[in-house]
Amino acid sequence: MQEFNAVLDLLTMLASDFRMGGLFVLLVMAAVSDVRFYRIPNWLTFGGMVFAIVYGTFAARTPMTGAMAALGGLGTGLAIMLPFYVLGIMGAGDVKLMAMVGAFLGPYQTLQAILFTCIAGGFAAVAVAIHRRRLGHMLANVKGAAQGIVVSGIAGIRPNGTIDTRQSIGKLPYGICICVGTIAQVLAHQLGFV
Questions:
Q1: If you average pLDDT over residues 103-114, what whole number do you get?
Q2: 3-state secondary structure of 58
Q3: Is the pLDDT score of 163 beyond 60?
Q4: What b-and-e string marks burial along 87-117, b requiring 16 or more CB atoms within 10 Å of the CB?
Q5: Is the four-CA dihedral 13, 72, 179, 44 of positive or negative sign?
Q6: What share of the chain is helix, strand, coil (3-state, %, to 5)?
Q7: At what angle do helices 107-131 and 63-86 cross, to 10 degrees?
Q8: What is the pLDDT of residues 128-150, one digit of tens each?
Q9: From CA 121, how far away is CA 20, in angstroms rounded?
Q10: Which of 86-90, 100-104, 172-176 has the highest mean pLDDT?
Q11: What is the domain count for the chain?
Q12: Which among 6, 38, 4, 24 is positioned nearest to 171, based on CA atoms?
């Protein structure tokens, strides 16, 4: 019971922090939009980026360090997620949302948030596959992709990087995974686990 109260106190503290409260609200709005329309609006991601950079610049001890942390986090989120968009695995809104998260968190914490997001995405993909009764199909896709990577690596052939959408098990609104993964990372960071 004491741990539960500590988590509630932490959530209250984070909600009262203007920056983290703003991030959480933007993440939930993005997740809801992604579920309903399979789209994350630009006004939300770009507005969040501007807010995070301006707030980070003026809330830091020195404006230069605050701006560099916000811009470094934005760049980290963008650089890591952009290849997934190029390969057709992820939508542009998801990439911009992760860049926005980076502007709030800074580079190091953004790396952790991406890791937590990928874990949440893995669980969500399995849950969606089970719900749609396509788990076997998903596992066959993973096996085929892994074999292709291994064969390409052994043969020294560069993979073409295209994904056949007919083999897909369906769309996953990844904004939910970014929301859940980022909030979990922020809570874990505040509790001293990461």
A1: 97
A2: helix
A3: no
A4: eeebbebbbbbbbbbbbbbbbebbbbbbebb
A5: positive
A6: 80, 0, 20
A7: 30
A8: 889 888 888 888 877 877 777 77
A9: 22
A10: 100-104
A11: 1
A12: 38
Range of the domain at 133: 1-191
**Cβ atoms within 10 A of the Cβ of 62, count?**
9
Residue pair 180/188 in contact (Cβ under 8 Å)? The answer is: no
Token pair listed for 35: 């579920």
Please, are residues 168 and 145 in contact by the beta-carbon 8 Å criterion? no
In angstroms, the CA 111 to CA 56 distance is 18
The closest of 100, 120, 134 to 25, measured between CA atoms, is: 100
Residue 111: C-alpha distances to residues 80, 118, 140 (Å):
9, 11, 29
Element (H, E) at 149: helix 135-155
Classify the C-alpha dihedral 53-56-57-63 as positive or negative: negative
Confirm if 118 and 77 have CB atoms less than 8 A apart.
Answer: no
Global confidence as pTM: 0.85
C-alpha distances (whole Å) from 41 to each of 29, 34, 97, 163, 171 are 10, 9, 9, 25, 18
Number of H helices, E strands in the chain: 8, 0
- Please provide the distance, in angstroms rounded to a whole number, between the alpha carbons at the two ends of the chain: 23
For the chain, the average pLDDT equals 88
Contact 113, 185 (CB under 8 A): yes
